[in-house]
Amino acid sequence: MRPIANPPPHVYTTVGLDRAAARRRDPAWLAERRRDPLSRVVALDDLRLFVVDRPEGPDPFALEPALLGGEIPERAIFLGLLEDRAVFALDLEGERPGIEGRLVELRALSPLLGAAEAGLLAYARALAHWHRTHRFCGRCGAPTETVEAGHVRRCTACGSDGFPRTDPAVIVLVTQGERCVLGRAPRFPPGMYSTLAGFVEPGESLEAAVRREVREEVGLELGEIRYRSSQPWPFPQSLMLGFRASCVGGALAVELEELEDARWFHRAELLDEERRPVRLPNPDSIARFLIDEWLTEG
Ligand SMILES: [Zn+2]
């Protein structure tokens, strides 16, 4: 049987990280960790990761306290403990540390990293995005400030607390016998087809969201829906909830507002990598996992 590239826990999930949430409210301990030469820093700017090129590859953990004036800045977010070393995320906000480096996208970097590192960087990216987009209070409009080592933003006027957002989205491989449905959105790279997906709306169960999205996007009715696994997707702030569902009715009709095409594909035509008529999603995605898992059952 062919190996599946990205089994659960999927890439971008934190693994082996002790979030040490109680330490977020321990300023003395945090101050020590910010000066500890063993602490690690994930630096970002504009949601891209700052890496230093080494002979063995790009290093996203090159910034130690010594390169930051002896202390990790107080605004850095405490992510947790990895192998007993504190890890912080730092948004450079246009500044550059005293070492030569460059900014790279997480999705370009992740194939070169281990699971623990990729998960940590995804977590850092998600929090950096949240901070960048929640500088003002949603209730009264006053500026917010960072508390609890970067895990809460508190309004400076009305005192209301805001917490990091994660938006649930369902993603589903629809099958019928030896066939599955894949669709193509205009934003996809040329030739790529993928599973169907959409955000869960307020008041909706996950199963209802799966049925609605599939009906809206391709006009098909579903029978059994089976949950498979989930994947944090910090691009910028989703949690993908992966399903397999069987089609029991309807005729494939593409909703052109969301997709530019959708088709039934036979398992045999997708299995043969050389003759596959379309490009499948990147191996870092749960979309690809859902497709690969079904293909290996053939
Ligand atoms: Zn407020």
**Helix/strand structural class:** alpha+beta
Strand content: 25-35%
- Under CATH, the homologous superfamily of the largest domain reads Nucleoside Triphosphate Pyrophosphohydrolase
CATH topology of the largest domain: Nucleoside Triphosphate Pyrophosphohydrolase
Provide the helix percentage. Answer: 10-25%
Q: How far apart are the first and last residues' alpha carbons, in Å?
A: 9 Å
Count of alpha/pi helices: 6
Number of strands: 16
Rg to the nearest angstrom? 22 Å
Query: Would you identify the regions where 5 or more consecutive residues have pLDDT less than 50?
Result: none
> Which CATH architecture of the largest domain would you pick?
Alpha-Beta Complex
User: What's the overall geometry?
Assistant: globular
Task: Supply the number of structural domains.
Answer: 3
Which cofactor or ligand species appear?
zinc ion
CATH class placement of the largest domain? Alpha Beta
Assembly category:
single chain
Order of helices and strands: EHEEEEEEHHEEEEEEHEEEHH
Average pLDDT taken over every residue: 96
Structure description:
There is one protein chain. The chain is of the alpha+beta class and 298 residues long. The protein has 3 domains: 17-125, Nucleoside Triphosphate Pyrophosphohydrolase; 134-165; 167-296, Nucleoside Triphosphate Pyrophosphohydrolase, CATH 3.90.79. It is built from 6 helices and 16 strands. The strands form 3 sheets. Strands 1, 2, 3, 4, 5, 6 and 7 form a 7-stranded mixed beta sheet that branches. A hairpin with a 2-residue loop joins β2 (40-45) and β3. Bound molecules: zinc ion. The site of zinc ion has 8 residues, from loops.
